[in-house]
């Protein structure tokens, strides 16, 4: 495949990911003269589990948002920092049809984690369920290739 086409496909995929997650994506352009540098950057890639939590902000009993999204985010941030060393968060809108057939929509907090254990994620979810009075949290687990990039070494 032509290198320019391959770069454009990668860029499009990264932009889709950026739009979908509300996160930050870094795209590395490597010219033909820096092929060795490109290989070095991606040489240490590891396959890791990425955990993503989707946390609603509507109270489970009233189906209304009783605390602000900003306050809910501060609560979840504190809980996360008790259990893990790092995370990425963003805000989204979510909706579902409840048991009566009514569409319920709410502000949703999205938290992503790498380099954590199942037990840490479970501890976060248990505490968030209680503190935000939630019925459930959607947990998504995906296998991803990742590497921490620290810049080029001279």
Please explain how this structure is put together.
The protein is an alpha+beta fold and 154 residues long. It contains 4 helices and 4 strands. The chain has a 4-stranded antiparallel sheet, covered by helices on one side. The longest helix has 19 residues, at 3-21. It is elongated and about 60 Å long. The two termini are 31 Å apart.
Tell me the layout of helices and strands.
Elements: H1 3-21, H2 35-43, E1 46-56, H3 69-83, E2 88-97, E3 103-113, H4 118-131, E4 138-146
Antiparallel strand pairs: 1-3, 1-4, 2-3
Helix pairs in contact: 3-4
Poorly predicted regions are: 23-34
Structural class: alpha+beta
Q: What's the β-strand tally? A: 4
Count of DSSP helices?
Answer: 4
Head-to-tail CA distance between termini? 31 Å
User: N-to-C SSE series?
Assistant: HHEHEEHE
**Morphology:** elongated
What proportion of the residues form beta strands (DSSP E)? 25-35%
**Average pLDDT score:** 83
Main sheet overview: 4 strands, antiparallel
């Amino acid at each position: 495949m032509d290198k320019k086409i391959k770069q454009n496909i990668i860029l499009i995929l990264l932009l889709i990911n950026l739009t979908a997650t509300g996160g930050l994506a870094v795209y590395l352009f490597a010219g033909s003269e820096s092929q060795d540098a490109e290989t070095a950057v991606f040489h240490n890639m590891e396959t890791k589990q990425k955990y993503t939590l989707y946390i609603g902000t509507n109270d489970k009993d009233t189906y209304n948002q009783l605390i602000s999204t900003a306050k809910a985010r501060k609560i979840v941030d504190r809980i996360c920092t008790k259990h893990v060393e790092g995370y990425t968060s963003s805000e989204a809108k979510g909706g579902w049809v409840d048991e009566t057939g009514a569409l319920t929509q709410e502000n949703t907090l999205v938290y992503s984690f790498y380099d954590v254990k199942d037990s840490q994620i479970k501890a976060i979810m248990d505490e968030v369920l209680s503190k935000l009075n939630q019925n459930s949290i959607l947990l998504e687990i995906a296998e991803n290739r990742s590497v921490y990039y620290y810049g080029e070494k001279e």
